[in-house]
Amino acid sequence: MAASTRSQVISLYKIMLKESSRFPSYNYRTYALRRVRDAFRANREVEDPKAVERLMDEGEQMLALIQRQVSIGKMYEAQRTVVDAP
Question: Which parts of the sequence belong to the Complex 1 LYR protein domain (predicted)?
C-alpha cells in the first residue's frame, strides 16, 4: 500500500471513530465503534490497490451513513439513562 493510501486509510479510520463516538445512545455508540474497529482489523492485510480503493469507497459510504444517523439520533434524543450520562 502506498504511503498516501495508507494515510488516507488511517484518516478515514480516525474520522469514523470520531463520528461513531458522537452517537447519543450508548448502545448505538458502542455498536458503531465495534463495527468500525472490526471492519478495519478484518481488512488489515489487503494489499491489492483495487481492493483497497473499493474498501475506501465503502468506508466513505459508511461514514456518510454514520453522520446521518448521528444527526437523526440527536434530533430524536430520548431521555438519557445512567449509562448515557456525560
Answer: 8-63
